Amino acid sequence: MKLTFPDHFWWGAATSGPQSEGRFNKQHVNVFDHWYDIAPEDFYNYVGPDTASDFYHSFHEDIKLMKEVGLNTVRTSIQWSRLIDDFETASLNPDGVRYYNDVINEFIANGITPVINLHHFDLPVELYDRYGGWESKHVTDLYAKYAEQCFRLFGDRVKNWFTFNEPMVIVDGEYLYQFHYPKIVDGKKAVQVAYNLSLASAKAMAKYRGLDHNNNGKIGIILNLTPAYAASADPADQAAAKMADLWTNKLFLDPAINGHFPEKLVTTLKKDGVLWQATPAELQLISEQTIDQLGVNYYHPFRVQRPEISPDSLMDWMPTKYFNDYEMPGRVMNVDKGWEIYPKALYDIALTVRDDYHNIPWFVSENGMGVSREERFMDANGVVNDDYRIKFMHDHLTWLHKGIEAGSNCFGYHVWTPIDCWSWANAYRNRYGLISTNIHTQVKTIKRSGRWFADASKNNGFEA
Ligand code: GAL
Questions:
Q1: pTM of this prediction exceeds 0.70
Q2: Relative to the CA of 169, which ligand 1 atom is closest?
């Protein structure tokens, strides 16, 4: 049976500045650049962001390949640490301006709509050292100034803006679970940072909407949603899944779309003595600046069970005092990466957006499969025959299609990622691209999945 998607569906892919460009000609150092400079051993095979996939130099050729695999839209991000010279005044770096203009123009010249994100985990490290980064409200103002520069410079051509990619990962990685620099463990700071990120997003949106010319563009946020499924019907597991959903999903979804934080979560954080500092004026701004459209990154579900020990125990505050991971027997896994594969979650997300979030326009802004040692699947011509990735996309798109048929307002599907890129501390361990990169020669080759995607895009659907 052929599955056909809505007219003008976005068949695209996503990458980011810090993961693709390389550090060439960059005036400032972001937190990942810095982390690599001080602890290269924390990065898989000691590979850092210096070259990444060399997009800084090869964007002309790379964008041609993106066109060849059928992408009609591509998301990347502007690096604050490249575009801005002085963070306090948001003065511009001339090479940064030239570079992002060239990239945006090149996308458009190739018939690809550029989708631009403003922050992808890449805080300039100076702002961390000077102010504590996202712990500081001053930094939210500096971010809004930088965002305004972006809108003014590129808003004549860019009509789809996103303020943040996965703000929850900043909270989890930097302040709770130690997978991003500065690897702090501090629940109270984590809660404040979560709030400040929603505030920063609202401030940037206010700047956008305050401009004379935004050319009917749209602005939103990109959130990683991990639907929380309870291990059983037992009320304790059900309650754990509710809290997990509030913390991992609704903490950002609710203010972004409904303009306020979930009440149950606020009450809990207050009772636990970790609630954020907020002013009435800030909360007013958050309530006014809700998003036009939502990006959803989905990779894997979140299986949850009751915590092992009671939340009333004496312990430092962590959200996980309310829930524990649950390893469901018989689950389908991508073993190397350690992630469960559960395509039906996209259908569940589609219905959640339809029913709980006013059916706001949304798209899948990242979905994909990270696979290590892909040379295993490479033929004599250097083509990776990644049938597992084709199946992954096919199955996720099939469930997404059911969600659309059920009335969910989804307008696109972006794969992570167009071209194998640098994946933070995992560096190049797992490959996600429709196009492979040889990190030694920078030779790029379309994978079998790239050909499949080109067909799906051309036909606006596929045979299921
Ligand atoms: C996401 C992130 C991307 C990419 C991807 C695959 O969380 O937004 O930058 O790294 O994971 O690991």
A1: yes
A2: 7
Residues 159 and 213 sit within 8 Å (Cβ to Cβ)? no
Between strands 430-431 and 10-14, the pairing is unpaired
Report the nearest-CA residue for atom 4 of ligand 1: 423
CA 284 / ligand 1 centre spacing (Å): 32
Which runs of E-coded beta strand occur in 110-149? 113-117
The pLDDT score that the predictor gives to residue 383 is 98
Under 8 Å between Cβ of 287 and 260: yes
Per the CB < 8 A criterion, the answer to whether 162 and 116 are in contact is yes
List the one residue out of 89, 88, 94 whose CA is nearest residue 27.
94
Query: Mapping DSSP to helix (H, G, I), strand (E, B) and coil, where does residue 114 land?
Result: strand
pLDDT at 213 over 80: no
Q: For ligand 1, atom 10, which residue shows the shortest CA distance?
A: 423
**pLDDT digit string, tens, across residues 242-299:** 999 999 999 999 999 999 999 999 999 999 999 999 999 999 999 999 999 999 999 9
Positions annotated as catalytic residues are 166, 366
Give the pLDDT confidence of 349-363 residue by residue, as tens digits.
Answer: 999 999 999 999 999
Task: Give the sign of the dihedral formed by CA 119, CA 95, CA 33, CA 136.
Answer: negative
Question: 334 CB less than 6 Å from ligand 1?
Answer: no
CA-nearest residue for atom 12, ligand 1, is 423
**Is the Cβ atom of 164 under 6 angstroms away from ligand 1?**
no
Strand runs labelled E in 323-366: 324-325, 333-334, 339-340, 362-366
